[in-house]
Amino acid sequence: MEGDGSDSPVTIKNIERELICPACKELFTHPLILPCQHSICHKCVKELLLTLDDSFNDMGSDNSNQSSPRLRLPSPSMDKIDRINRPGWKRNSLTPRTTIFPCPGCEHDVDLGERGINGLFRNFTLETIVERYRQAARAATAIMCDLCKPPPQESTKSCMDCSASYCNECFKIYHPWGTVKAQHEYVGPTTNFRPKILMCPEHETERINMYCELCRRPVCHLCKLGGNHSNHRVTTMSSAYKTLKEKLSKDIDYLIGKESQVKSQISELNLLMKETECNGERAKEEAITHFEKLFEILEERKSSVLKAIDSSKKLRLDKFQTQMEEYQGLLENNGLVGYAQEVLKETDQSCFVQTAKQLHLRIQKATESLKSFRPAAQTSFEDYVVNTSKQTEILGELSFFSSGIDVPEINEEQSKVYNNALINWHHPEKDKADSYVLEYRKINRDDEMLSWNEVEVCGTSKIIQDLENSSAYAFRVRAYKGSICSPCSRELILHTPPAPVFSFLFDEKCGYNNEHLLLNLKRDRVESRAGYNLLLAAERIQVGYYTSLDYIIGDTGITKGKHFWAFRVEPYSYLVKVGVASSDKLQEWLRSPRDAVSPRYEQDSGHDSGSEDACFDSSQPFTLVTIGMKKFFIPKSPTSNDPENRVLPMPTCIGIFLDYDKGKVSFYDMDHMKCLYERQVDCSHTLYPAFALMGSGGIQLEEPITAKYLEYQENM
Fold first, then answer.
1. String of DSSP letters for 599-664
2. In Å, how far from its chain's centre is CA 543?
3. Distance between CA 342 and CA 339 in Å, rounded?
4. pLDDT tens digits, residue range 29-55?
5. Mode of pairing for the β-strands spanning 217-219 and 210-212
6. Cα-to-chain-centroid distance, residue 48
7. What biological processes does GO assign it (predicted)?
8. What is the pTM of this model?
């Protein structure tokens, strides 16, 4: 039960660090004991569960809140908190309640099981100490009597059975001698009331009377008889109390006996802190010196390069000036021509011939230059472009001397961008780091250098949210082992999709042919089965047989905005068509399927002409491209009829970008986020993602990147 509060206020105030919740960074309020033995506020557990549950349910949503549990969490509405606190609460029938979350104290996953928060013990001892701390902090504020008539008197006792505080007079009135209430337990004034007997969270009518040594938690006799602790070693509560109290007292006595040693080590730590500060400043000065030397070299090279460019520019301009003066002399009454005109006025034959011979040579030379005009110098300075690519790469890798930590390397194959960015990296097992820092920044088209964003990570993968669409981002990672940091890894450049990711599943009702198509339970993968039905149908045809496509569409339509989705076509697929189609065109295809017996019938053209030439310049209510035999076929167009230019290797992952408002659909290679083909589409009706298969084939929708996706990747 609660102590008498004899501890001095100074002692209580000195332990504030132990009374702070690791989640909200404030004094504990109704702390709960997690399975990892760390404590956390009751409200903080609820907020953590609600935050994680919202992020799991908002698959593909950029607005999902996955704040670190070390940050102050936003307070959800009370009705949400009430719902998540009820046993068996579910947001909907498909998504179960979240019961796993990382402990803010040790960051290990905590599983609350079926009972959720109701299965946790309340840490009454910690709660009592926090209350004593609060009282010491507000010593001038008295606890008033709860039963006095106004004005109330200052209380002198608190009854743990009545959960109320009393002054001396009121306590005598409500606890008269000779009655049952006279036997109530009372303590000094407090606002912290707790039950006299701990009850089992799993068996609410049973009191705690045993201690499970394996799980390190109190249990009742029903837990031992047939519950989760039936095969565990347990001991009596009195024995556990005696053992743990002896161990704790012995350890505390040992620490108190080593007080002089602790003070000596504190003094040593103070000296180390001062030494670290001095060494850090010295390292900064040395780094500044090294960079200033680099700046001097760059300034010297800059001056030399600019001087060479100025010299070349002056020489070229002088040549152009001389050439221009020569050409100006060819004008009438000017320069050479004017001088020749004056020479023609000479009447003395001997004098004329003496002067005209050399003048004639000059005139001939000027005439030839007019016929083949050539500038006296080049205007281009291509030879004076400074190549700094190698130096830029070296400067980008500029770091400290080898610190003994290998550089982590980003795994390009396992890193990707879809609705979010998933970055994976690996590090030698012999050089296990304590933590990593993932840096990323947007690359502007004008090469503007933006500052790096930093995220601290304990594992070797991280999901980055809230990236801008149609942008390029650079990622790099460095490792930390203690206070030592490794150099940064090589940068990985990833391109985000051109629009927000559109989440949908395959529709198993509208037009779905279960005889030819096989849809998995998650409805994100479909396979075409070219089985007996196709062979039996072909057996009845003696001349030729052309089978129809089997269509399947997305379960969500689009009526506005920009949307992007991606999928993978299995390499063994014979013929697959992908794209978009309007609701009215889908009704035409799905309600009137035709097994075409004419080779002029082409199902993706919407008519029987067998050609799409008539639709080159006009938008249609659908657009489908053909994929098959590991090839991507670009549809015909007036500018592209050559089969060699229209057949591309099939991308590993294909993306479709629909701009409904502008009536345009584009097809992307997701690996490089490169547009392969685009054209106009009629958006006067609702458009749906459309797929069609013939023969053996398979399509897998790309899964949005969420916390669940990361857990799955780690398990794999």
1. TT-BTTTTBSSS--GGGSSS-BSEEEEEEETTEEEPPPBTTB--HHHHEEEPPSSEEEEEETTTTE
2. 57
3. 5
4. 888 888 888 888 888 888 887 776 665
5. antiparallel
6. 19
7. acrosome reaction; autophagy; defense response to virus; innate immune response; protein ubiquitination; spindle organization
8. 0.53
Number of residues assigned to the chain: 716
SS (H, E, C) 287-338: HHHHHHHHHHHHHHHHHHHHHHHHHHHHHHHHHHHHHHHHHHCCCCCCHHHH
Residues linked to residue 368 through DSSP beta bridges, in sequence order: none
Q: 228 with 253: CB under 8 angstroms?
A: no
For residues 41 and 39, give the distance between their C-alpha atoms in angstroms, rounded to a whole number.
Answer: 7
Which amino acid, one-letter code, is at 652? Answer: T
What is the token pair recorded at 674?
């490169």
Respond yes or no on whether the N-terminal peptide bond of residue 22 is cis (omega within 30° of 0): no
Mind listing the pLDDT tens digit for each residue in 308-342?
899 999 999 998 898 888 777 666 556 777 788 78
Question: What is the predicted pLDDT for the residue at 216?
Answer: 82
CA 554 to chain CA centroid, Å, is 26
Taking the C-alpha atoms of residue 520 and residue 442, their distance in angstroms, rounded to an integer, is 38
Q: Quote the DSSP letter at residue 207.
A: B
For 227-281, give the secondary structure using H, E and C: CCCCCCCEEEHHHHHHHHHHHHHHHHHHHHHCHHHHHHHHHHHHHHHHHHHHHHH
- 208: CB partners within 8 A, 6+ apart: 197, 198, 199, 200, 218, 219, 220, 237
Contacts of 442 (CB under 8 A, 6+ apart): 450, 467, 468, 471, 472, 473
The DSSP annotation for 47-80 comes to: HHHHHHHHHHHSTT-TT-----TTSPPPPPPHHH
- Domains assigned to the chain: 11-52+97-139 (3.30.40.10), 239-370 (no CATH), 409-496 (2.60.40.10), 517-592+618-701 (2.60.120.920)
Q: C-alpha angle 76/79/81, rounded to 5°?
A: 55
- Can you tell me whether residue 283 is helix, strand or coil? helix
Average pLDDT over residues 181-202: 78
Residue 281 φ then ψ, to 5°: -65, -40
107 or 424, which is more confident? 424
> Locate tokens 């035709």: which residue?
594
For residues 457 and 459, give the distance between their C-alpha atoms in angstroms, rounded to a whole number: 6
Token output for 622: 């659908």
